[in-house]
Design goal:
- The chain is α/β, with parallel strands linked by helices and 298 residues long.
- The chain has one domain: Alpha/Beta hydrolase fold, catalytic domain (Rossmann fold).
- The chain is built from 9 helices and 10 strands.
- An 8-stranded mixed β-sheet has the order 2-3-6-4-7-8-9-10, sandwiched between helices. Strands 1-5 form a two-stranded parallel ribbon.
- It starts with 23 loop residues before the first helix and ends in a 5-residue tail after the last helix.
């Protein structure tokens, strides 16, 4: 029997692939990763802002547009010095000469103020130093008083202190061994570094230093949740420089207990606790120190 003819095979039409289905787990992971990356970038940005603006936690400059007529009745000279590349003076200082026949008319105090306010806040101290018969040169750091507008920092203030020293030893041409740095507040940490860099400095005076600035930053609510210990660099160290510096030091504390940074200061040193606002004890402490360590070496 003849075999029936086979039917021709029907061509196979390819079926379209089913559409890709996005896994909900992958989607959740992608969203979570995006959120984590955004939070990390925000946190790093916050750390960068803290690093750049941390000076505001410990330094509080005040700008002034005019100078006082006198220092509690004492005449003085306004000095502008430390010109930049455009020959514009960057620092403003006050030269308060000793009275004629002053007891220490050959000695000049280089006054290094605190990081709060401006020189106007130091007028009582400047007057007291002048009344002892001393010459006094005080200045505002950049960012303070009438000095150039700038963001203050430990580095810039250290440079300004050195610029003031250079000015005194070049322009008025004062003898280096007759200039005594006097630092108060954060300025107290600048004086030892100045003495370490200039061996001719005969002595230095530190009055109520501001220390433990890292603790100040840690306690600030603006620094909450930030790695302050890693980021903070405006420390104004004092304890370590004092422990090795052999320059004679007068250490003035205005609390009932001596400042902790004074306890390990190297000799020679004189430590005085000014527990009351007695001008007599303050004057006696300075004259004793100057007579013992500065006058004999002149």
């Amino acid at each position: 029997m003849p075999r029936p003819a086979s039917k021709p095979a029907r061509p196979i039409t390819p079926q379209p692939a089913p559409p890709d289905v996005v896994s909900p787990i992958w989607l959740i992971r992608a969203i979570a990763l995006t959120i984590v990356a955004a939070l990390l970038c925000g946190y790093l940005t916050l750390c960068l802002l803290f690093y750049q603006g941390q000076w505001q936690l410990v330094l509080h400059p005040t700008r002034t547009s005019s100078s006082p007529a006198s220092i509690t009745g004492i005449p003085y000279e306004l000095i502008r010095f430390n010109p930049d590349e455009s020959a514009t003076p960057q620092l403003t200082g006050w030269w308060i000469p000793s009275a004629p026949g002053g007891r220490y008319a050959s000695i000049t105090i280089l006054f290094l103020p605190d990081g709060n306010g401006s020189l106007a806040n130091s007028i009582p101290t400047l007057a007291s130093l002048h009344n002892l018969g001393l010459n006094v040169f005080a200045f505002d750091y950049r960012g303070y008083g009438q000095s150039a507008t700038a963001r203050p920092s430990q580095q810039s203030m250290t440079q300004d202190a050195d610029s003031a020293w250079q000015y005194l030893t070049t322009s008025p041409n004062l003898a280096a061994h007759r200039i005594v740095p006097y630092g108060t507040g954060v300025g107290a940490s600048l004086a030892p570094r100045l003495a370490a860099n200039h061996n001719d400095i005969p002595a230095l005076i530190l009055d109520t230093p501001r220390t433990d600035l890292l603790d100040v930053a840690i306690r600030d609510p603006r620094a909450t949740l930030l790695p302050v210990r890693l980021l903070f660099h405006e420390r104004f160290p004092l304890a370590e420089p004092l422990s090795t510096l052999r320059t004679p030091k007068l250490l003035l504390s205005r609390t009932t207990s001596p400042d902790q940074t004074f306890l390990h200061a190297s000799d020679p040193r004189i430590t005085v606790e000014l527990t009351s606002p007695s001008a007599a004890l303050y004057n006696q402490s300075l004259t004793r120190f100057l007579d013992q360590y500065v006058v004999p070496n002149m």
